[in-house]
Amino acid sequence: MKSKKLTVSQKQSLTGWVFLSVAALLIIWMSFYPMIQGFWLSLHSGAGARMAFAGFTNYRRLLEDPQFRRVLMNTFLYLAVQVPVMLTLALTLAAMLNSPTLKFRGFFRTCIFLPCTTALVAYAVIFRSLFSTHGYINTVLMNLGLISEQFNWLGTAWSARLVIILGLTWRWTGFNMIFYLAGLQNIEKSIYDAAKIDGANAFQALFRVTLPILKPIVLLTAIMSTNGTLQMFDESVNLTGGGPARMSMSIAHYIFNVGFQGTANFGYAATLSYVVLVLVATLAFIQLKVADRR
Q: How far apart are the first and last CA of the chain?
């Protein structure tokens, strides 16, 4: 009996799977296996040799934890305020720096992009110094007559959160601007010329031409920025220390404290981490459903 030969299409498909197999195994090993292990860990309490199976006790504790509700509120505040402001500013700067008549465009692009190459700890320390009680910001505001005495930016809940939002915006605006700038440079000038002939003004060209073409890039940057904000750690730890009274602490900072400081509890830290996973997946799914019409 003759063996059945593979068709050209089947051979190509098999070749593709052979090339993908190594990457697929690495993804399973480095991503999905730790996720399963993390869920199993979340069903335990304690740390190290003291760990014991606790079932869904950690998840019940999660619903009754006031500190978790506070850090979750802080994180969503950063997400709701900082991400829209940053993406709008990034798009505006990209549109300005895409102008062919602007001189020193390369210099301005480099200056705006440089903050995202700065070490996280270094920029957090600089911002902490700027916004200290005797820092440069207070000095400038007092000289301008906007405040009458030195203000404790890092010692008040709303101002500590504001400093974190400013720090995140300063550091990541240039990163998102590069994506928008690349998208703008791929839009043919003839499209704008046609819109102008049809009577479209600058405002209409922005909302009827630019934004629809940039929609996939806007979606990409929105998802990346959302994920990054939900997992924000360095700013909360190095900039404000989570203070005052944990009023500016992010959820990632809280996970670190639960898992590695004081009476460590790996199981509860894993439970909190799963909340972040669910939030990231849910928000990414919603953004894809709302923005991607394909």
A: 47
- As a whole number of Å, the CA-based R_g of the chain is 25
Q: What is the pTM of this model?
A: 0.85
Mean pLDDT for the stretch of residues 268-278: 89
Is 218:87 a contact under the CB 8 Å cutoff? Answer: yes
- Alpha-carbon distance of 265 to 62, in angstroms, equals 13
For the structural domain made of 65-291, what CATH number should be given?
1.10.3720.10
Sequence-ordered strand ranges (E) for 81-171: none
Name residues whose C-beta falls within 8 Å of residue 292's C-beta, 6 or more positions apart in sequence: 216, 219
pLDDT of residue 4: 67
Looking at the DSSP bridge assignments, the partners of residue 31 are: none
Cβ-proximal residues to 129 (8 Å cutoff; 6+ apart), any chain: 135, 136
**Residue 94's closest CA among 185, 196, 156?**
185
Distance of CA 222 to the CA centre of its chain: 8
- φ, ψ of residue 198 to 5 degrees: the values are -75, 0
Residues of the chain with CATH 1.10.3720.10: 65-291
